[in-house]
Amino acid sequence: MAKEIGIDLGTANVLVYVEDKGVVLNEPSVVAVDTKTEKVLAVGTEAYQMVGRTPDNIRAVRPLKDGVISDFDMTEAMLNYFIGKLGVKSALSRPNIMVAAPTNITEIERKAIMEAAEKAGAAKVYLEYEPKVAAIGAGLDIFAPIASMVIDMGGGTSDIAVLSLGDIVSSRSIRVAGDRLNHDIASYVKNEHGLQVGERTAEQIKIEIGTAIPEEEPQKMEVRGRDNFTGMPRSIELDANEIELAMHDTLAQIIKASHDVLAEIQPELASDIIDRGIVMTGGGALLKGIDTLIAGKLGVPVMIADHPLDNVARGAGELLENMKQMKESKRR
Ligand SMILES: Nc1ncnc2c1ncn2[C@@H]1O[C@H](COP(=O)(O)OP(=O)(O)OP(=O)(O)O)[C@@H](O)[C@H]1O
Q1: How far apart (Å, rounded) are the C-alpha atoms in residues 269 and 257?
Q2: CA distance 138 to 163
Q3: 205 is in an annotated binding site
Q4: Out of 135, 223, 240, 310, which could bridge 140 as a Cys pair, Cβ 3.0 to 4.6 Å?
Q5: How far is CA 140 from CA 17, 163, 223, 274, 293, in A?
Q6: 156 ligand 1 Cβ < 6 A
């Protein structure tokens, strides 16, 4: 019997949920390619190790940018590899796949995602909006006549939505999220300390000492990079409040979008949100102090989902399982 699979085809990570098994795969969305032959050399974790360290004949590609496909062939190759690795595809049975997508994707982007999943071996492909499946994955009953609000802050996009009766009532999807924060940190270190750091180092700084609100006794971290002027390796000490400063404007954009979503809903729904609060999902939800910052700015309680990185894949898989159960009970 064909398996139901939920995929979070993310800019930073691909997560796969398999029916009856849960989230079984979580790997970086990276493909390493031989520049001469264009042959795929490695995918996922193995390819990620090569980012910033590739010799001339190897290129590490991120096939998704800002939450959507930027390199179709590489996305297909990546999906093919991951689905093959799961062992759920055979000559006799192919899985049904639900893929999560940002709310503002274009028709062309939509088709590209569907086609890549089909070519990677899906029997049927479904597409659902990211904040909707993230809310399901976070355990919210979005089908109830009561409003829920989700902020899903990923690598490339922040998807913000208010949902009621199973539908999105108001939403924003902005192509500003964790990757932009990494970029902000790298620019800050370069401008303020004259040190060049790579994408992965900037991300490590964010994860280790990054904070959304200034700290009284900021954490410190030693960071290595290349001196702007001499080109030689050098190390500096950074403190958490510098990182807060570096990320400040980008976080303000995410808060502004959340504010806009709240501003356009009806008063009854707004009252539900004040009661129930906002749930944050996605890797960005793990940024220290992000809940306190958003709660303070919007005047609404903010909770972090239990497994924020898993919610989208889990929700996509669970939605597909529900659809299957409904079909079976109708048939009976
Ligand atoms: N502890 C942490 N603190 C801050 N940020 C974190 C932490 N852990 C992960 N992240 C960030 O979360 C982001 C990845 O989140 P996630 O896996 O939800 O995104 P994605 O689904 O790949 O992206 P998108 O939904 O935009 O396509 C990365 O930018 C990563 O740096």
Answers
A1: 17
A2: 13
A3: yes
A4: 135
A5: 18, 10, 40, 15, 22
A6: yes
Whole-prediction pTM value?
0.91
pLDDT at 163 over 70: yes
Candidate from 75, 132, 207, 247 with most ligand 1 atoms within 8 A of CB, to mutate: 207
Domains in the chain, please, with CATH? Answer: 4-130+311-330 (3.30.420.40), 133-176+250-307 (3.30.420.40), 178-246 (3.90.640.10)
Position in ligand 1 atom list of the atom nearest CA 282:
18
Contact (CB, 8 A) for 153 and 280: yes
Q: Residue 157: CB within 6 Å of ligand 1?
A: yes
Sign, Cα dihedral of 246, 172, 117, 331: positive
Task: Give me the phi and psi of 265, to 5 degrees please.
Answer: -95, 160
Alpha helical stretches, state H, the chain: 45-48, 72-86, 107-119, 130-137, 178-193, 199-209, 240-263, 267-276, 290-298, 311-331
CB burial of residue 230 (10 Å; 0-12, 13-18, 19+): exposed
| Pair of tokens at residue 285 | 């939800």
Q: Is 194 annotated as a binding residue?
A: no
155 is in an annotated binding site: yes
Q: 76-121: per-residue pLDDT in tens? A: 899 889 988 887 766 667 889 999 988 878 898 889 889 988 988 8
Task: Tokens 């597909």: give the residue.
Answer: 320
- Copy the structure tokens of residue 282: 């996605």
The tokens for 62 are 């991120």
